[in-house]
Amino acid sequence: MIKQGRASTGIYGLDDLLGGGFRENTINIVRGGTGVGKTTFALQYSLFGLNRGDKALYISFEMSEEQIIRDCNDIGWVEILYHIKHGNLKIIQLFGEDLTFPSLDLAEIVRTSLSASNTRIVIDPLTYPTFYSEKEKRKSLSTIFQELRKLGTIVIVLEEPADSNHVAEGSAMPLYLADTVIHLQNLGFGEMYDRTIRIMKHRGSKHGDSLYPYSIETGFGIVLRPSEKQMDRVKPKTKFDNVFKEAIRKTKSMGNVGELLSARIDALRKNWTHDDNPSHVLDLILEEEKKGHAKNT
Ligand SMILES: Nc1ncnc2c1ncn2[C@@H]1O[C@H](COP(=O)(O)OP(=O)(O)O)[C@@H](O)[C@H]1O
Ligand SMILES: [Mg+2]
Predict the structure, then answer these.
(1) Are 29 and 156 members of one domain?
(2) In angstroms, how far is CA 282 from the centroid of its own chain?
(3) How far is CA 155 from CA 45, 59, 227, 288, 289, in A?
């Protein structure tokens, strides 16, 4: 279900931290070590859409269709079989050697397998080739990402060594190519803060920037468990609306710049998540913007 250019992730509690979900036609990377829940994330994302009328295309470099069905049944997502039978979910198992980087084979496979535009696309995991030069890799991956973006909203799973300090030189994925990067971590001590999720990057909107605990629950999958304080930090505050309105009033005498500015200040008002009064920030903005205005007239 894609609403207002955003696709709900289906990960309980995550959409609120992402300004509503993944943006349409973007590359969204979920990275982390083995066992953190990357595949669970990808399946949960797929099933959330499938249960609401979307299609899903799941490209797996790791698991066969049988394995995926078994894992889904184990967690309690029994509807997976229905979606496969009715052609809503297509699972393609690939082997690394099937792809010859830096060609566009991956994008080509996705393109030819798509049956509808409202398809959630997953690549689990994207194994990053190490046999090309740094420059070639960058070029090919950015081209592939560019191609994939045109096809839909993509979730790419990245398997990373637990000790990320020892990532081999040159084998790291250029994360700047992605629109969203979500990092899952598991410390493995069996405590509340063992499993944490962090949004490292989310283009186009403000996002939660804490380390949020999560757990994997039977029947539901990944459930975020942010504290009240963490939730409060992403909630826009309305208590300063008057301060914003006063600043907007001050833009009235500023001509064209003022018109642009009043719209931006209103956007800032809607996104003001801080607990402190914005008057200082607004004074600073008005002062700077006035400078430019004076120069232009
Ligand atoms: N039915 C379940 N109930 C609770 N947790 C589960 C269930 N199935 C799997 N898990 C948890 O999910 C983890 C595996 O997640 P997975 O998505 O396969 O990880 P990754 O793809 O990151 O390697 C397991 O280590 C386990 O802790
Ligand atoms: Mg996996």
Answers:
(1) yes
(2) 30
(3) 8, 10, 27, 41, 40
Residue nearest to atom 24 of ligand 1 (CA): 35
Whose C-alpha lies nearest to ligand 1, atom 5? 216
DSSP state letter for 164: G
166-197 pLDDT, tens digit per residue, is 555 555 778 999 999 999 999 877 776 799 99
Tokens matching residue 193: 């803060």
Counting atoms of ligand 1 from 1, which one is nearest the CA of 43?
Answer: 17
Contact predicate 205/215, CB 8 Å: no
- State pTM to two decimals: 0.89
Query: How many Å apart are CA 288 and CA 42, to the nearest integer?
Result: 45
227 shares a domain with 131: yes
Pocket of ligand 1 (CB under 6 A): 32, 34-40, 74-75, 216, 218
Ligand found nearest the CA of 38: 1
Which of 180, 204, 234 corresponds to the end of one domain? 234
One domain for residues 134 and 245: no
Q: Encode pLDDT of 230-276 as tens digits.
A: 999 889 999 999 999 999 999 999 999 999 999 999 999 999 999 99
Domain of residue 29 covers 2-234
Q: How many domains does the chain have?
A: 2
Alpha carbon distances (Å) from 4 to 11, 22, 24, 184 = 18, 11, 9, 27
| 3-state DSSP assignment of residue 222 | strand
